[in-house]
Design goal:
single chain; 243 residues; alpha/beta; 11 helices; 55% helix
Length: 243
């Protein structure tokens, strides 16, 4: 990641921290984001991750999902498996105190969220990136990115978990419930937002009848609609998604 964004990232990180603690009014950060980006929130079992990868591939963007864990691990100088263990999970101060006393490898939640915020903002500032989950739509300017929510009915998601992960129905239900609860509480605890509010997104896509290829095409069409100037301004070759 380019170091030329460090000063801006630190400035924005400090702003978000100050706003959270002091409840300062919003300020305009939009002018610093020169190129658009995409954020993709997703329910477990909805197909959000493969759709994000397809969108990134078709646009020639970076897909920031597992790579987020790598970046945070590098910046905190902690093992990847330690970062992965706390990724998109909420914590309480009591848990932090107990775990820090008992576990020498414990990852402080504020340190993790701070570094995660820095990584997300750095990539968003560069643009041309698809950021998966982690409350990225709440960290980045609404007008400078396309913010997508991928969903599917509960029964569809359970069946997909059984089909693609080999889970029994009971196991699939347990895993979906656990992951969904952790992701929601993570956003609520650290960003003070409700990820289930539909007006938090430009586009909510139900993938019941849309395979990955078609779903990614719909997102790209929405991207061009929101940022029609991008192709001309940056000489970007628009790919046809209509065949």
């Amino acid at each position: 990641m380019s170091s030329r964004y460090d000063a801006l990232v630190d400035r924005f990180t400090n702003f978000f921290q100050a706003r959270a603690s002091l409840k300062l009014p919003s300020v305009d950060l939009n002018t610093q984001f020169k190129k658009p980006f995409i954020t993709i929130a997703r329910e477990p079992g909805s197909g959000g991750a493969p759709i994000a990868r397809a969108v990134a591939q078709k646009l020639g963007f970076i897909c920031l999902d597992e790579q987020l864990i790598d970046e945070v691990a590098r910046s905190t100088k902690l093992r990847k498996d330690l970062i992965k263990a706390v990724d998109e999970k909420n914590r309480t101060h009591v848990e932090d105190i107990v775990q820090s006393l008992l576990n020498p490898d414990y990852v402080d939640d504020i340190k993790y969220v701070t570094e995660l915020t820095k990584v997300i903002l750095a990539y968003a500032l560069q643009g041309k990136v698809v950021i998966v989950g982690r409350g990225a739509n709440f960290l980045t300017p609404v007008a400078k990115g396309l913010h997508v929510n991928i969903t599917a009915p509960y029964e569809v998601r359970v069946q997909r978990a059984m089909d693609f992960e080999g889970f029994s129905r009971k196991k699939a239900e347990e895993v979906l419930a656990k992951v969904e609860k952790e992701r929601k509480e993570f956003v609520k605890q650290y960003f003070r937002k409700d990820p289930t509010r539909m007006n938090s997104y430009d586009l909510t896509l139900n993938t019941s009848y849309f395979p990955v290829d078609k779903a990614s095409d719909l997102i790209i069409d929405a991207f061009w609609h929101k940022f029609p100037w991008y192709q001309q301004a940056f000489g970007f070759l628009k790919r046809s998604t209509t065949g």
